[in-house]
């Protein structure tokens, strides 16, 4: 594969004239970390597998310096563990760790939903509608990658509508660690259908600013995520969708 392309500037129309809009390009380190992160969360590099550093330097035509900087970013996000004198290995989450992460994530999602109903703007409404439409189209054509990109954008947009930067940052970090778990959970068609169908009511509750309903729906949605990835633990950990939130 060729070295990642650096994005250039964009052009937009302002007052009937086309004006250049400067878009800051991502650094090489950021591009490499984005690539490895995508491979991890889409299960192309599996938990317990070592990151093949030599192969990546050859694949992208880079030195070890930007690669190791990229790995440090992923280690900070707790997607990998760097073991001195050995390398970097993808973190494998246990059922208990996933449940604990979901307990906190549910609380954040519920809190974000409640704040969003107070703080959301028209632009936030447009973002929710746009991501829902993108999800629907990706689901229609069975494009799981596109679906999950839109799915994550949908949930992050609810958090963003809280307009609370601390909550948004914490939510985004937990979302990264849980992405792979939720992605694998809907590989079965019946699970994917149920998960997709839950988003329309969530969107409607958001748009109508119905905070109690929105909080309940996002809690149930994430309770379902836990049951998808750990059906044997469902009876104890998430037999009732709200249990994840109550035990947090």
Explained architecture:
This protein has 248 residues and is mainly α. It folds into two domains: 29-90, Winged helix-like DNA-binding domain superfamily/Winged helix DNA-binding domain (Arc Repressor Mutant, subunit A); 95-246, GntR ligand-binding domain-like (Four Helix Bundle (Hemerythrin (Met), subunit A), Up-down Bundle). Helix content is 65%, strand content 7%. The chain has helices at residues 28-41, 53-60, 64-76, 95-119, 122-140, 144-160, 165-185, 189-197, 199-207, 211-229, 234-237, 243-246, and strands at 10-14, 17-21, 80-83, 87-90. Strands 1-2 form a two-stranded antiparallel ribbon. A two-stranded antiparallel ribbon has the order 3-4. Helix 1 (28-41) packs across helix 3. The longest helix has 25 residues, at 95-119. The radius of gyration is 20 Å and the shape is globular.
CATH homologous superfamily designation of the largest domain:
GntR ligand-binding domain-like
Q: How confident is the prediction overall: mean pLDDT?
A: 81
How many distinct helices?
12
Radius of gyration: 20 Å
Task: Describe the structure in brief.
The protein has 248 residues and is mainly alpha-helical. 65% of the residues lie in helices and 7% in strands.
Helix-strand blueprint:
Layout: E1 10-14, E2 17-21, H1 28-41, H2 53-60, H3 64-76, E3 80-83, E4 87-90, H4 95-119, H5 122-140, H6 144-160, H7 165-185, H8 189-197, H9 199-207, H10 211-229, H11 234-237, H12 243-246
Antiparallel strand pairs: 1-2, 3-4
Helix pairs in contact: 1-3, 4-6, 4-7, 4-10, 5-6, 5-9, 6-7, 7-10, 9-10
